[in-house]
């Protein structure tokens, strides 16, 4: 898909009216969530621990699943038919969408797009992993309409999303990041948040982190396959790795599951999305003249794996 055109806008004066008042309590705030997929649904469920009413939108109806996830809280929610309605009815809206194409469709296309709900003071927090130009474009469009924008891609997959232990890599409007309501929301969904400056920096950091993850898992997978080919115990390999300098939480989590193959676990992070992130990181490396040979090899392996698993009708995991 061609890159979204980028328009830079001048920030509005800091005295403009905000829907989120400086002293507004979380219990009085209407929170929206757009995108209730593998990540978005548990993130929204964690928001329900404090925010008592949410407005949500998803391409397919997830009402029953979200209701079950909120069963142990006092929260209620309204499911609406268009993304614009989420923004219109809420003070602050979080989104978690999978690709630039999805963001274009949901935020920028049609009368029901999220952008058409933005008015002066609305706050948008986009947790998607996209390209820098995608984040900058959405931020500019939100600000043109008087809204505030924070990019907040996350480090972590389905498990941390369920546990409320994601790491948020934020950039954009510092006043929105610092607002008590935004901080409360980030604390409910994550264990730590970082403010990294201008819009785009959160995406840069996320892509750097995810290309490292891809390279690590590609090499780790090769080690498991090689140990099996040499008639060595994979359990012994995993324990030896865990006792040395190479020990990593990701290896401890993924290793026992990886040795059982595709049938060993449910989807935490679809391979197509992991490959997307590695590919975007490679694009940044090429732009800056950085040799990305290791990431390139990992990307090639993920493409081959994705093709093979799709041919067998299985949902790939990473």
TrEMBL record:
Keywords: NAD, Oxidoreductase
Family matches, as PROSITE patterns: 3_HYDROXYISOBUT_DH
This protein's record includes keyword Oxidoreductase: yes
Organism whose genome encodes this protein: Chondrus crispus (Carrageen Irish moss)
PANTHER family listed in its UniProt record: CYTOKINE-LIKE NUCLEAR FACTOR N-PAC (PTHR43580:SF2), OXIDOREDUCTASE GLYR1-RELATED (PTHR43580)
Residue intervals of the 6-phosphogluconate dehydrogenase NADP-binding domain: 30-197
Protein's name in the database: Uncharacterized protein
Active site feature: 206
Top-level taxon of origin: Eukaryota
SUPFAM superfamilies: 6-phosphogluconate dehydrogenase C-terminal domain-like, NAD(P)-binding Rossmann-fold domains
Recorded GO MF terms: NAD binding; NADP binding; oxidoreductase activity
One Pfam family per UniProt: NAD_binding_2
Domain 3-hydroxyisobutyrate dehydrogenase-like NAD-binding: 200-300
Family: Belongs to the HIBADH-related family. NP60 subfamily.
